[in-house]
# Entry
Amino acid sequence: MLAHCTPWPEELAARYRAQGYWRGETFSGVLDERIARHGERLAIVSDTRRWSYRELGAEADRLARGFHALGLGPNDRVVVQLPNCAEFFAVIFALFRLGALPIFALPPHRKFEIGHFCQHAQATAYVIADQHAGFDYRTLAREVQADTPCLRHVLVLGEAGEFRALDALPRLEQDLPAPPRPGDTAFFQLSGGSTGTPKLIPRTHDDYLYSVRASAHICQLSTDSVYLSVIPAGHNFALSSPGSLGTLYAGGTVVMCAHPSPDVALAWIARERVTITALVPPLVPVWLDAIHRMRPDLRSLQVVQVGGARLGDDLAQRLSQELDVTLQQVFGMAEGLVNYTRLDDPLGVVLHSQGRPISPDDEIRIVDDEDQPVPPGAVGHLLTRGPYTIRGYYKADEHNRRAFTAEGFYRTGDLVRCTAQGNLVVEGRAKDQINRGGEKISAEEVEQQLLAHAAVSACAIVAMPDAFLGEKSCAFVVRKDATVRGIDLIRFLRARGLATYKIPDRIEFVDQLAHTGVGKINKKQLRQDIAARLGGAAPGPQHPTTLESTQP
Ligand code: OOB
# Structure
């Protein structure tokens, strides 16, 4: 076990093995097995590649040997920040084979986030594309490397500049280290977070592969499945729910869509006979409008999954009426638990709930503020533990004491209720986070950055309703110097290297922040203030809400 990772208690681990959830597989073992079984089948398609399973395996092997020749080996942490491309899989399967641990950064992450991941995890390598979507990642790598002595290698897909190209790794014919064991940490997912710094989520081969395999089963994937990866490939939804890894597990084909624009994605669906794809809610109306305009051939498409943020009932209705596909709602989290509506659920369940857990051994508790169970059907805090939900974040002992109960339940921060049929409905959020169309923003993280500005004496970030994204972020700021403008603060945050989606969408200067009776900033009041200012939108299910306001 990697240091600073919390294992499952031994008796539970034994049970998960005995139940057949943890089967003793590893990612590279699964790939080898798939190559043996259907090596010539098409595994990955991108703008530039068309790889069979055998070709994917050969490329992963070449990279594993090259990485090893550079000195990378078991438990080395490697930040992987690639756009949706075929090479993403060659890189991660190479790292899996070595027992090196990818940290799945998202393409919009910048110096603040990447620097933090590298330093916190003491990463030795950082894998990037030269450029993507108008951004040069080599500039970012230069800045990060200057501040991070442990970062020995920057490996570049494309033109490497002063760094090393993935195409030009050394070719030493030396033996690879022994492959990792199934119970070992395989990689790190990122937490959406509600604290000052983003947390790393260690996932093992055993636990993740269980969620991947069971998800592929729930979504009825087979060798005929063609999955279109539209949202960032490293995000838990696109990777494992069932995502690209579920598709490869089933022996199907993954199509990597480098740009989420519907024009590009819809053309892929027609060209590659895509059967399943996953969207975040804001993409749904954009796709529907594009489909009406372009009338693409969507006959192959069977399932459209929507998750990452609450899908409004109206939009769910529109999607299921206007497209001849099965809608599947997915409510998951990088920490583990994933819920799905099932493909044969009645329409009412699919339209109005976020489904139920993958596993019979996913334990769900819905509790009040004192951790006591709420009456059946009432809204409460969702706590969970199970065979693929972590027991602790990486190197975060103090935070772990708050984020997990003494019995090992993860406090999701979500407010849910359970219907009589056993499906969960997400009613809001107790965590201090903004869900900007599926992209998660920790309020505290951005507040800390704003407070670093000399003219800011106090601030609070809250969600404000947005017709397109569901929520956007609004910063209430008390300033010391009235000449400082909103644009100055935004420029300041950009210069600190914060990802663009975390930059407040709106800044409201105020003389003071409302406080609660116990002296905390009254964020509920601030949310109401900004909603009223924007035209009095009533807080709906997409808006964070406190428990007392949602109790029936
Ligand atoms: C997925 O994972 P994360 O880690 O980016 O975010 C998890 C959080 C949840 O705790 C919840 O607050 C929110 O995102 N969320 C939803 C939702 N799906 C996720 N809120 C309402 N309705 C939904 N359907 O977002 C994620 C991971 C795996 C599969 C799908 C999504």
About this structure: The longest helix spans residues 53-69.
